[in-house]
Amino acid sequence: MSSEHMQHITQAEDRIPYQQLIAYGFGGIIPIALFNIAGQLMGLIGNISLGLSAFWLGVIMIIPRLWDAISDPMVGHISDNARTRWGRRRPFLLIGGISVAISFVLMWWIPNGDLVHHWFPTEAAFKWFQLVYILFWLLIFFTACTVFEIPHGALGMEMSSDPHERTRLFSAKSFLGNLFAMSTPWLFALASMEIFKGPGGNEADGMRYVSMLVAVILIPLSFWWFFTVREPGFKTASKQTKTPFWQDMKHTASNKTFLNLVAIIFTLAMGFNFVALLGYYIPIFYIFEGDKSAASALLGINGTIWAVTGLIAVFPLNWLGSRFGKRNTLIIAIGLMCLAQLSKIVCYNPQYPYLIIIPTILLSTGMLFFFTLGASMVGDICDEDDLKTGHRSEGSYYSVYWWFIKMGTAFASLVTGLLIMFTQFDETQVTKVDDFQGSINKTIHQVETWNSFIVKEKLLQKALENHNQPSLINTKDQLFNEMLIGYTEAIEESKALLINLNKESLKTQQQSNANALQTDLHLQHKKTQTISTINKLENLLTHLKNIGHESPEFRIKEIIESSLPMILNTSFDKSNLKFSTLLLHIKTQSNASTDTSKHYQNMVRNLSTIHEKIEFSQSNLIRSSSNPESIIKDLQAIKKASVGLTLQTPHTLFWMRAVEIGLPLLLCLFSLFFALRYSLTEERTYEIKGILKTRNAKRLIDSLSSTVLEN
After folding, report:
1. Distance between alpha carbon 274 and the CA centroid of its chain, in Å?
2. Residue 261: how many CA atoms within 13 Å on its side-chain side?
3. What angle do CA 407, 410, 411 make, to 5 degrees?
4. What is the pLDDT of residue 6?
5. How far apart are CA 33 and CA 242, in angstroms?
6. Which of 36, 272, 485, 520 has the most CB atoms around it within 10 Å of its CB?
């Protein structure tokens, strides 16, 4: 490398104003953060929260990428040939940004719950309906991402003619995109919080409302990008002859330097995308043994460290790129990623969970170097192509480059599903545990709600004795209405339980064995009991409406203590029903595999202990109705005991780690092979820049001379 190159200083006219640098950089939110959120969290939440097949989720994740094979080059071509009063690229930033925000929200509103469930004759039909819904909105979302990202990336290549100023620009995009990306794991943590998912909900419910927070940020940013970012090359490009689509694609695909760069990026990206989802499974199911709440905190902290490392790594990247050249810095990045994978052998440790931070720092640094340089190097290739053809096609080149990255992600989605199936991960077990834990959470919430009515009555009674103000009477009226709503909801819960009991009864009647007969008798007893509860609650509700809150008969504490055991008995029955399906699943899995029998025997023992706790609490409902705190204490103990029920088999946990570490390491070596063959050197890049500058200056003089002669 020449000393002249090492001392290169970007000329003033090639530097990008700070305001535009920041505005352009924030555009990294969509391709760096939201793109990965959709690709990773949808697969994770769809599998462990909705119980959808990892394989079929992988299949539907690849379909939008196949659509990208058409939409990416088309958007690139349309953008190259657009001629609007606002430029070639900027209108796409506004339209694309708003479309991404809206579709990101709608893709998380996946129909779920008992009401929707009852529309479908079978569980399989309901799951297919959910998969089709996800697929439809993924197609819309990724199309919107394309409308934004392809013109945005192409614009980045046009904003400066200096190769290292381009690196600085794409570094800003990586820096600010990663700043937002640090929220990616925290989105999962937020979706796990009761304030978003609600009592009895799961992460899929939480993401509905978390996604709205994202849209509130993204829509104003879309207008900011449109009004702030400029297109310095549009004046020249507007005079450029429009070219046919297939001619552009053929020309781009014939550029050997470009194809070599694509091979470097695609191979490595594919390796890490293959196992990206496993990066969530391992902390949850290996390091924290299925405790999603504990793991979500680590995932959030680890994601923050990933993003912060990405922010810091921008600064050495710019120094290394100008000191050693882009290709050599790319090789350094691959080396860091190899080292990160090897360190995971030691750092995936349940005894010391935060060791996971070490490979995170190495991997984040390497990834930022790698992908930032890749986008910048496409701009250098466009310069080389301009020198040969006199035509600039940043949109076409960037669209093809980005399409290969997307295809790597898409193909990886399919492979990830297959890999998860290969490890024999049991998503049914996880979702059944979620259902059971959700029913316990709802019961806790019920007890707290009814107990709050008793507390409010005491406060109101004391206040009325002292003041007797009309506002307090109005408050008592409000409390009365809240109780009526509570009894109405309890009746609906009992009716929903009756429907589920009827379904289970039909299933057992189709079996012809002694256990099925005994189970059906138990279900018939529960159905009779539930019908009785519905009738009693309906009579009580009617009675309360008739007497009103001013009646001496309206004594809240007495009414609740007499009716609470009925209400909670329904909730316990729902929990028992969900518990029974979980126990049956675990026993079935135990019988199907002799290699993991010890694991499942431990699971069955834990389930038996939990079942004893449930039966004890339910049998003491009448005695405990005057002491709701004791009921809550029992339920909290049941909830705590159920945390480890999602634990996977040792076979699954071993192969998750082996695949997540080994596969990217292998493909890093292939990427290194292609990197060593990359031919566009730093010296040649600056030589091309100088020639283009001289040529363009000559064209400008010729154009001015021609204008003068015409006048």
Report:
1. 16
2. 31
3. 85
4. 46
5. 34
6. 272
Query: CA neighbours within 13 Å on the CB side: how many for 233?
Result: 21
Looking at residue 38, what DSSP letter applies? I
Do the Cβ atoms of 343 and 660 come closer than 8 Å?
Answer: no
37: its two tokens: 């959120």
Mark out the alpha helices in 548-596 (DSSP H runs). 556-592
CA 317 to chain centre: 28
Specify which residues 87 forms β-bridges with. Answer: 84
Task: Using CB atoms within 10 Å of the CB of residue 706, give its burial: 0 to 12 exposed, 13 to 18 middle, 19+ buried.
Answer: exposed
Looking at residue 706, its pLDDT comes to 66
HSE-up of 168 (CA within 13 Å, CB side)?
19
Q: Distance (Å, rounded) from C-alpha 216 to C-alpha 433?
A: 34
- Say if CB 505 and CB 524 are below 8 A apart: yes
In this structure, are residues 540 and 562 in contact, taking their beta carbons and an 8 Å threshold? no
Quote the CA–CA distance of 263 and 492 in Å, as a whole number. 59
Is the pTM for the entire model greater than 0.85?
no
What is the Cα–Cα distance from 5 to 324, expressed in whole angstroms? 10
Return the structure tokens found at 637.
Answer: 């103990």
pLDDT, tens digit, 9 for 90 and up, residues 478-522: 888 888 888 898 898 888 888 888 887 787 777 666 666 777 777
* Of the listed ranges 412-416, 447-451, 503-507, the one predicted with least confidence: 412-416
Q: Where are the alpha helices (DSSP H) in 467-513?
A: 470-509
| Cβ-contact 177, 23 below 8 angstroms | no
- Tell me the pLDDT tens digit for each residue of 354-376: 999 999 999 989 988 888 888 78
Residue 555: count other Cβ atoms within 10 Å of its Cβ: 11
Q: Are 290 and 694 in contact (CB under 8 A)?
A: no
Structure tokens that stand for 337 in this block: 């990623």
CB-CB contact of 268 with 667 (8 Å): yes
Q: What is the DSSP string of 638-678?
A: HHHHTGGGGPPPHHHHHHHHHHHHHHHHHHHHHHHHHHHT-
Spatial contact of 561 and 458, defined as CB atoms under 8 Å apart: no
Q: Which amino acid is at 266?
A: F
Task: Please answer whether residues 643 and 291 qualify as being in contact, where contact means their C-beta atoms are separated by less than 8 angstroms.
Answer: yes
CA-to-CA distance for 46 and 55, rounded, in angstroms? 11
CB-neighbour burial class of residue 466 (10 A; exposed 0-12, middle 13-18, buried 19+) = exposed
Q: Report the run of H or E that residue 461 belongs to, with start and end.
A: helix 427-466
Q: 671-676, long-range: CB within 8 Å, 24+ apart, which pairs?
A: 671/263, 671/264, 671/265, 671/267, 671/268, 671/271, 671/334, 672/331, 672/334, 674/260, 674/263, 674/264, 674/267, 675/264, 675/327, 675/330, 675/331, 675/334, 676/331
CA distances from 246 to 38, 243, 251, 281, 440 (A): 31, 9, 8, 43, 60
pLDDT tens-digit series, residues 645-685: 888 888 889 998 999 999 999 999 999 999 998 888 878 88
% of the chain at pLDDT higher than 70: 88
- CB hemisphere CA count around 530 (13 angstroms): 24
CA gap 428, 560 in Å, rounded? 37
What is the distance between the alpha carbons of residues 63 and 67, in angstroms, rounded to a whole number?
6
Q: What is the pLDDT of residue 5?
A: 43
Check pLDDT > 90 for residue 336: yes
Cβ-Cβ contacts under 8 Å for 584 (sequence gap 6 or more): none
Say what the pLDDT of residue 64 is.
82
DSSP secondary structure code for residue 289 in this structure: T
Measured CA distances, 547 to 551, 555, 580 (Å): 6, 11, 41
Least confident range from 4-13, 50-59, 89-98, 499-508: namely 4-13
Mark out the alpha helices in 290-393 (DSSP H runs): 292-324, 326-347, 357-389
The CA–CA distances, whole Å, from 559 to 117, 455, 483, 629 equal 34, 14, 10, 18
- More confident position, 275 or 592: 275
